[in-house]
Automatic annotation (TrEMBL), chains A, B:
Source organism of the structure: Geodermatophilus obscurus (strain ATCC 25078 / DSM 43160 / JCM 3152 / CCUG 61914 / KCC A-0152 / KCTC 9177 / NBRC 13315 / NRRL B-3577 / G-20)
Protein name: Kynureninase
Keywords of the record: Hydrolase, Pyridine nucleotide biosynthesis, Pyridoxal phosphate
Encoding gene per record: kynU
Gene Ontology cellular component annotations, sorted alphabetically: cytoplasm
Annotated function: Catalyzes the cleavage of L-kynurenine (L-Kyn) and L-3-hydroxykynurenine (L-3OHKyn) into anthranilic acid (AA) and 3-hydroxyanthranilic acid (3-OHAA), respectively.
InterPro entries noted in UniProt: Kynureninase, PyrdxlP-dep_Trfase, PyrdxlP-dep_Trfase_major, PyrdxlP-dep_Trfase_small
């Protein structure tokens, strides 16, 4: 691979998605230095679409301020309307299978309890070592409340889960497997179709966490036979900080499942306000309370951009950006003790790449101070997520160049070694 | 009572809260008729504070677009910062006792399960007939999942719960009582101190739903000895459609309680991302997933206005507005068959008044078409919620005048008698 900056510029010139960069605010808008920030943290919090402020203003200043309660006639459909947009444009699911609601954690809880209820007599929940904390904690909490056992499958912190190891952990006691399609730390990609099929053979259900996958790689839920999934909209879907999550339930399963938080927005004929809970037909039975209208509109804006770009094209570019990160890390950072902490095969990665170095936290601080924004993950990882929708190849080149300068100069050595509670 | 419009104007002239009206958008901004809409539905969705768009723009266009993930250093404190504002300015609670998080329904679920866990050996959950649907449904769902029994206490649909009837339903089997401080349909006010004390004597906990109370009447959680509460921020707190809810746990109880949805935002030392769930100290253990940043900022704006006005003053004005509704209904509407469906004693009401008429749904539609926005509640109720923060006495007078004209002319008779799913 040609590692010159000119080669990165040539990749940008040939990028069919290059035009999407201008549709995000904040890229190169720092007056003191228009090249900064170099944002490699789109897998933590995606950039703001240019259209988002106007969409929010319309909801707030027209629909809320003037329409007042009468605007519920349009708001009430937002959770399924944006759900359908995600289903068709991002997730490879069918209309009526996706709902925007609550947080990823609450949705995980709802679907995990519903799935466990749908497998009576089975007393084991499976999760994966080093999966995202909230996934493991939710599994532990549900298991404790129900007197079930957690079977934590080992996974390589850099290479991800070995499907054979998971298969060996599945038996007639397993009710549900919770697994991230893209591992949050390493970016390792799971095989959605194969894992779902293996679990189904054993009689269990898989609940996928798509937080680091949705908008980065095709998840093809229908084609892959997935039953259940949840995911985050503030990463590659650019829905904004704390934006509501989505949940997916395969159409054929919906009537069999009941989620545990019986709320009025999941009720059939909601405004009859009847005496007994009777879950709505379809995906709306997985709704709970009054939906977050403002935030859902912001999700819609972000999801539309991803759908327009197309997840296949985004995955191709994401892989190419990752390949550039890996090549430059090998060439420039490895001599300073930086090791690749993600699968080397790009077909086995999502859209982020993780590097390991004992001074990872100090390096992160030094990079942020120089206008390069990566993500630190404890204990010794620097995670680089160049979101393909708005990140240029030269951004990656410049960020890695800065990284090498920091390492070469030892500029990071003056920074605190212990992370404060909040960064 | 002097029922002339001039008398209403005199009440406005003497209103110490009159200045707050200008701090809400939408009042009289309909170019075709500056007197419309006459909004009597602030107890369903509060008006938009004038400051809200700028506060949202700051979060979106500065903190998100430019600060990106670095803005989490301020965002991460929002749930407790706004919680403290609500505690001190609205709820009569202490700092560290209130958290903004999730929806009212999800918060009800979390605290109900936590409370039931804290009363092992007790197998009954108490709710009140005709309480808001989501409250009754959550109780039913939790009871079913745990093999507990629901004891539904009868309550008069117009007069609310008789404390003696509740007391008779409490015994050593009761773990938790769920009860709205202000009944959603009738506006009947419960005695928070007396009910809490009665339940405590029987060894049970009360989980208050403050949705129709917060910002309308003083709830004085500390003074009244309340243990647990949840509530809505999009009604009298003017947080916007689907704004996140709040939850309250008395400080002395926090360490004894564990909520069932184990998420990473409730974890001690969250970013250590440790292997096992270990709930954070204090109110943050009741957090679950990534908090809704945009919506929480909107809640802050609304809550500040309520705190500035003062709940005592708001309650006084709310009661006076209600008295005008009742007096005009008696004088003008009763002859047309409209009956008061709220307690007649203003000390026993929150800030809304409900009227009953067989054609309630048709009347609601006719009023909306004439720029008067009340709320319909099945089967035959028109609910009038003149929020004291921005509603004038002449607004009430004009709305009731319109109501009487509709009844006198029979203008409502042409409207559909059956409500479509969404209004």
């Amino acid at each position: 691979m040609d590692l010159t900056r000119a080669a990165a510029e040539a990749l940008d010139a040939a990028d069919p998605l290059a035009g999407f960069r201008a549709r995000f605010a904040g890229a190169g808008d720092d007056a003191s230095d228009p090249t900064r920030p170099l944002y490699l943290d789109g897998n933590s919090l995606g950039r703001m679409p240019v259209e988002t402020p106007a969409a929010l203003a319309r909801v707030v200043e027209e629909e809320w301020a003037r329409g007042l309660v009468r605007s519920w006639s349009s708001w009430i459909g937002a959770a399924t309307r944006v759900g359908d947009l995600l289903a068709e444009g991002v997730l490879g699911a069918r209309p009526g299978e996706v709902l925007v609601a609550d947080s990823t954690t609450v949705d995980l809880y709802k679907l995990l309890v519903a799935a466990a209820d749908a497998r009576p007599g089975r007393d084991v929940l499976v999760c994966v070592a080093d999966d995202f904390p909230t996934d493991r904690y939710v599994v532990a909490g549900v298991a404790q409340a129900r007197g079930m056992t957690v079977r934590e499958v080992p996974a390589d912190i850099d290479q991800g889960l070995d499907p054979a190891v998971l298969a060996a952990a599945l038996d007639e006691r397993v009710a549900v497997v919770v697994l991230s399609a893209v591992a949050y730390r390493s970016g390792a990609l799971a095989d959605v179709a194969a894992v779902t099929a293996t679990a189904r053979e054993a009689g269990g259900l898989v609940l996928w966490d798509l937080s680091h996958a949705a908008g980065a790689v095709p998840v093809d839920l229908t084609a892959n036979g997935a039953d259940l999934a949840v995911g985050c909209t503030y990463k590659y879907l650019n829905g904004g900080p704390g934006a509501p999550a989505f949940l997916y339930v395969r159409r054929e399963l919906q009537e069999q499942l009941r989620q545990p938080i019986w709320g009025w927005f999941g009720q059939r004929d909601q405004f009859a306000m009847g005496p007994a809970y009777d879950p709505a037909p379809g995906i709306e039975r997985f709704a709970v309370g009054t939906p977050p209208v403002l935030a859902t509109v912001a999700v819609e804006v972000g999801a539309r951009l991803v759908a327009e770009a197309g997840v296949e094209r985004l995955a191709v570019k994401g892989r190419a950006l990752g390949e550039l990160v890996v090549a430059l890390a090998d060439a420039w950072l490895a001599p300073h003790g930086v090791a690749l902490a993600s699968p080397r095969d790009p077909a086995r990665r999502g859209s982020h790449v993780t590097l390991a170095h004992p001074d990872a936290w100090q390096l992160t601080q030094a990079l942020v101070d120089r206008g390069v924004v990566p993500d630190f993950r404890t204990p010794d990882r620097v995670r680089l997520g160049p979101a393909p929708l708005y990140t240029r190849f030269v951004d990656v080149w410049d960020a890695m160049d800065c990284f090498r300068e920091v390492l070469a100069s030892g500029a990071h050595e003056g920074y605190p070694t212990v992370r404060a509670r909040v960064t």
